[in-house]
Amino acid sequence: MAQKTSTIAIIAVVILIIAAAGVYLVTQEEAVGEEEEEEEEEEEIDLKIGAMITGLSGEIAFDTVCDESLETVKRELEAEGYEVEVDFREKVDVPESPAVMREFGEKGYDIVYANAFRYGTFIDEVAGDYPDTWYFCSTGYKSKWPNTSTYDIMSNDSGYLLGILAGMMTKTNTIGVILPFPVPDIKRNAGGFIEGAKSVNPDVEVLIGLILSWDDVVKAKEVTLVAISEGADFIFNSASGQCNLGVTEACVEKGVYVMHSNEDAYEQGPSVYISSQILNYHPSFLASALDRIQGENIKEVYWNDLKNGGLDIAPFHAFEDIIPQEVKDKIEEARGKNING
User: Fold this and answer.
1) Is 295 within the bounds of a domain?
2) Residue 206: beta bridge partners?
3) Cβ count near 18 (within 10 Å)
4) I need a labelling partner for 162 at 20 to 30 A (CA). Which of 5, 109, 132, 222 fits?
5) Alpha carbon distance 254, 71 (integer Å)
6) Looking at the domain assignment, is residue 257 inside a domain?
């Protein structure tokens, strides 16, 4: 009887093992099927984009522009029938950026947009290990690898238009330019502003203020106040991020006109922001994305300018009736020459 019970128990165990094995085999087959489906879905993605910014979208102008421009490009490409995946990383500190760049490379991303000039040196360290990924640094950094490029802004063009405004309207014949650091795109921007001012007012004095920081609000305000104390009644604000707050605060306190180099900043100081430069990375993001999808070679630089809609100047808002028509006409004349010339 005991032997019979043991036999029955053994048979039961065998049945359970077989049943479990059967369940396992079915589950494994299903899993394999799911993996194949996932692989098929991945194969259907036409473009995988990774992007990183140093701050938060919505807080810093050029980071917000990056986010919004990518979203626009994604919508447009999907409307054309392409499948696009975007992985947008915020608050990627510069020292941490190589790890994020490598992660994108390991995952087989097609394009990586690193939205800060300071990321550039780290692209040099990473890009050579992932030749099938295109790495982009914003605003002019030149890398040694053939799979790297830059998306840049012809900011001297829109800076020129704002310089005309300041050069024609200054009452003290002195204007100020406040810079965080003299990096290529900022120098180009400020240079255009100065050139525009001198094109209509050759004798205008230009005061240059260097903050030498990206986020020192107090120093930014101090540098701006020095320029104002020396007679500047128009300030061209090339500071972004936290430094922008210091420049704006100084101008509001002293009632001095100011123009931002990255965004329509009117709401930050409605009493002083007479106009500003507006950025849009859409043209360069769309052109580089299409090049990648269509199998074209990567270009050395992808520009955003007045001609392709990557740059403009902000409306005059409450100052529309204060700005003389002669000034507006001169700005439009210069814009037309730039676009059609």
Assistant:
1) no
2) 175
3) 10
4) 222
5) 39
6) yes
Number of domains in the chain: 2
Q: Which tokens go with 95? A: 């020292």
- Does this model's pTM top 0.85? My answer is no
Q: Which domain holds residue 161?
A: 155-278+311-340
| Amino acid at the residue 323 | I
CA 243 to chain CA mean position, Å: 17
Each residue's pLDDT tens digit in the chain (341 positions)?
A: 444 343 333 333 333 333 333 333 333 344 445 555 555 445 589 999 999 999 899 877 889 999 999 999 999 999 999 999 999 999 999 999 999 999 999 999 999 999 998 899 899 899 999 999 999 999 877 788 999 999 999 999 999 999 999 999 999 999 999 999 988 888 999 999 999 999 999 999 999 999 999 889 999 999 999 999 999 999 999 987 789 999 999 999 999 999 999 889 999 999 999 999 999 999 999 999 999 999 999 999 999 999 999 999 999 999 999 999 999 999 999 999 999 97
For residue 18, being part of any structural domain is answered with: no
Q: Considering 153, 173, 189, which residue would you say is the last residue of a domain?
A: 153
Which alpha helices (H) appear in 46-205, and where do they start and end? 61-79, 97-106, 120-126, 155-169, 184-200
**Neighbour count for residue 218 (Cβ, 10 Å):** 13
Whether residues 162 and 208 fall in one domain: yes
Q: Copy the structure tokens of residue 24.
A: 């396992």
Question: Which CATH number fits the domain that encloses residue 52?
Answer: 3.40.50.2300
